[in-house]
Design brief:
The protein is of the alpha+beta class. The protein has two domains: 5-96, Phosphorylase Kinase, domain 1; 110-189 and 203-272. The chain is 42% helix and 14% strand. The chain has helices spanning 5-10, 15-32, 68-75, 111-122, 135-152, 159-170, 213-218, 223-232, 237-250, 261-272, and strands at 46-50, 53-57, 83-87, 92-96, 178-181, 189-191, 197-199, 204-207, 253-254, 258-259. The chain has a four-stranded antiparallel β-sheet with strand order 1-2-4-3, with helices on both faces. The longest helix has 18 residues, at 15-32. The N and C termini lie far apart (49 Å).
């Protein structure tokens, strides 16, 4: 099996895992009796269709991907792809395959209507379930690390943006217990047969429901429109904006490359929208 170049580029700092991927995929194919097809050209995990399912292999160091299986198991196919199998030792998942699998971004679909129908089904109260990382814990880490990244990067953007993010981290609701997805957007919602649209590739946390706004606001040119839609779903408008800024700024720092200007600009655009 040939590992996609995009995946090699992103994970070049983990050559041992990249070298092991063909073997790991073959072991999974034998374990689950799969006839593997050509890998999807995606940069963050090895994704290989196999008939009615998809094999997905995560890098062991991809911490944000670790709770994906638990989130999919919790949703049990309600608005998201079904988890068919998992192998924790190989960091492998076997998932329901979406057919035709068209990204919502690439389809003639009313994205706001689709997302408005999906979010209430996925945002479950999971109080007492300790399988998922907490937003409050992540916010504490970001509050501690962000000023250091800012200084290390040569203060590359306005202090107002930094202070807005820090204020959101400091005021995190530690009692919130909603299962939320850090990376919900139109590229992670695919056309399917069992349901018209299914969510894939969640990055789950437990905390404030407004965090779910982050991926939607990051991936639109019309932030105000999405804020209006989220308010109709019961989100607090300014808290949704706040997490749009704070979460995306946290994700704008790359340990190997420093500040990613595109992501910083996305956070700025969210803050400045009406």
């Amino acid at each position: 099996m040939r590992v996609p170049q995009a995946l090699t580029d992103v994970w070049q700092h983990e050559p041992e895992w990249l070298a092991a991927l063909p073997r790991l995929a073959e072991e999974c194919a034998q374990q689950w009796d799969l006839d593997l097809e050509r890998p999807v050209d995606t940069p963050y995990s090895l994704v290989v269709p196999a008939g009615g399912v998809v094999l997905k292999l995560h890098a062991p160091s991809d911490v944000e991907a670790h709770p994906e299986a638990d989130a999919l198991a919790t949703w049990n196919g309600n608005g998201a792809v079904r988890l068919v199998g998992r192998d924790e030792g190989r960091h492998a998942l076997l998932l329901e395959r979406c057919v035709p699998g068209t990204r919502m971004w690439d389809a003639d679909a009313d994205e706001t209507a689709v997302v408005s129908g999906i979010i209430p089904r996925l945002q479950l109260d999971v109080s007492g379930d300790d399988r998922f990382p907490l937003l409050a814990t992540e916010a504490g880490r970001w509050e501690e690390e962000l000023p250091g990244w800012y200084a290390e990067g040569g203060r590359p953007f306005e202090t107002r943006l930094l202070e807005h993010a820090l204020d959101v981290y400091r005021t995190v609701d530690r009692s919130a217990s909603v299962l939320v997805n850090q990376d919900l957007h139109g590229a992670n919602i695919l056309a399917a047969e069992r349901e018209e649209w299914l969510v894939i590739d969640p990055k789950p946390l437990v905390g404030e429901r407004e965090l779910e706004a982050s991926g939607l606001l990051r991936n639109t040119h019309d932030v105000s429109r999405w804020l209006d839609v989220l308010v109709e779903l019961g989100f607090d408008r300014e808290r949704a904006r706040g997490w749009g800024v704070a979460h995306n700024l946290a994700w704008a720092w790359d340990e190997r490359h420093g500040w990613l200007e595109q992501h910083v600009e996305e956070a700025r655009r969210i803050l400045n929208a009406r």
